[in-house]
Amino acid sequence: MKVIGFVCDWAVSTEGLVDARGELRAYPGVHIVRIPCSGFMRPDWLEESLRAGADGAFVTGCPYGDCLNREGNYLMRDRMEQLARRLQRRRVDPGRVAMFAHGLHDREAFLAQVGAFLRRLESLPRPAARPVRPAVGAAAGEAAE
Amino acid sequence: MYRRALTWLLRQTVKLDVYINRIYPSDWNPLYYTGGLAHFFLFVLVLSGILLFFYYVASLDGAYASIRYLSEAVPYGFLLRGLHRYAADGFMVAVLLHLFRNWFTDRYLFARDGPWISGMFLLILGGFVGVNGYQLVWDQRAQAVTEIFVAILGALPLAGPALVRLFLGSEGISAAMLPRILFLHVGVASFLYVLLWWHYVRLRHPKIWPPATWVLLLLGVLVLLSALPGTRPTAGVPAQPGVRVTSYPLDVFFLLPFWLASYLPPGLVGAGLAGVLLLGYIIPYLRREDESRMGPRHAGVAQVIDGNCTGCELCYYDCPYDAIVMVPSPHPGLTKAAANRKLLAVVIDSRCVECGICVGACPFQALELPRFLEADLRRRIAEAVGAQAPA
Question: Most C-beta atoms within 10 A of its C-beta, which of A38, B17, B132, B155?
């Protein structure tokens, strides 16, 4: 199971939860990337993660109402809804992306939600074979679809 | 030392939210709305203040009698007076919560110093208006507060005696004083709204009103406090110039410096107060962390990639700090996007807080944070996926 988690650097602290390779100790295979704000995520990047071979991708922001940049997590939540509709049109299961909201200290709740997300991913049908494409520098687009 | 203390305070503040959010849905956490709460109290203050103004007589003989008439003879007059009194305390509590919370959670970083500086002015002038309000009643507390205030003002080097004369309208307390204080009370309170404009001007959707539940609850609390016999504001002893006031009921939110002045020389209290407030203005420029250690939190001011911008305005609508403006596209560009667009997004450096929300908003790869490039993120995605052997 390969999952990429994009975690806002102001949100839940992953210090001590992550090993040297950047993966969660509790769930090997879940790779954590710290980002400036959950609103920084372009939804395309989640889609691209799936395309590149990840089984799932999630974004973690601060609790709703407490975004340091005021609106980042609300905006991201809206964009995730749009992304889910877009993924459906492209025959990708929208259950493979998720948005979480956890504050600095919510480490247990965060891990629990990641665990639940992994179980959900396991229960999803395997994605249909997609053409393998190079991930780095690949033109983001859907020409190959 | 300061930095470590602030990091500790950040952790404790956010930990407090964890507990509060277990009680309410996080959207109702009152600490997420401290600014809105302050604004709500200010609104109550303005409404009740306008009504109080109809009854108040600004003269040494009439002031105390008019307040007494209002609270004893006018139907629900005591309620009006109590609302004004307790909303003022609520305002100060909300403002201080707002200050400390935003201080401890780093909400002063980068371009957010404008709201911070205007907020300090709002705090100082709000406190000043509150003290004025206690003087207007012209009971013994008002007399004591006026004497101490005059002593603090007079202890200022050079300008002191002139300011005292300006404040009192003559040598010593006279009929000229209360109209001046009334003007300061109402005039400076109106000026708070000018400062609020400055406070909000760079915020795209400022949270200026708390959720309805909190509004109703706080209104109820204010009405109860004003109406219950135990907490209802009572008429004190009328002021008698010449008589030395030895004790008066203290309002800790406004009159704390005046309490200190009964133990310390007034000059020292004034200097200490000025020192603390001046330190408040420096807070946004003292960082909790070294810039080099902030990592993605200090990714640099967003940059527009001219050739990719189509002028679609999505970043302009999403930026929470109004840091992006759309200008007429200045030249026929070389790229297809640039040649066909009418508008070009421009980031105003002095307003950008480096959050990258515009990057997420842009579907055309026309925005980048200089120290957190899209290429870096894609490389990390590839590494994350490729780092493991395929199952």
Answer: A38
Task: Name the residue in chain A with its Cα closest to that of B352.
Answer: A69
Q: Which chain A residue shows the shortest CA-CA distance from B356? A: A40
Contact A99, A39 (CB under 8 A): no
User: CB contact, 8 Å: B228 with chain A?
Assistant: no
Read off the CATH number of the domain in which B333 is found: 3.30.70.20
Does B26 lie at the interface with A, CB-CB under 8 angstroms?
yes
The β-bridge relationship of strands A30-35 and A97-101 is: unpaired
Q: Do B26 and A65 lie within an 8 Å CB cutoff?
A: yes
B114 in any annotated domain: yes
ipTM over 0.95: no
Domain end, chosen from B255, B285, B315, is at B285
Residue A71 belongs to some domain of the structure: yes
B370 in A contact zone (CB under 8 Å): no
The structure's pTM equals 0.90
Could you list the residue range(s) of the whole structural domain that residue B298 is in?
291-386
One-letter amino acid at B157 equals: P
- In the prediction, which pLDDT does B391 show? 39
- The domain total for chain B is 2
Q: Is the pLDDT of residue B164 over 50?
A: yes
Give chain A's domain count. 1
Q: Let me know if B131 is exposed, middle or buried by CB neighbors in 10 A (0-12, 13-18, 19+).
A: buried
Look at residue B390 in the predicted model and tell me its pLDDT: 43
- Indicate if B280 and B338 belong to the same structural domain: no
DSSP assigned state of A106? -
A40 CB neighbours in chain B (<8 A) are: 355-357, 359-360, 369, 372
Token readout for B237 is: 């002893």
B391 in a structural domain: no
With beta carbons less than 8 A apart as the criterion, state whether A46 and A96 touch.
no
Does B265 touch chain A if contact means CB atoms closer than 8 Å?
A: no
**Residue of A12, A18, A23, A37 best to disrupt the B interface, most CBs of B under 10 A:** A37
Task: Look up residue B69 and give its two tokens.
Answer: 């008439």
CATH of the domain at B87: 1.20.810.10
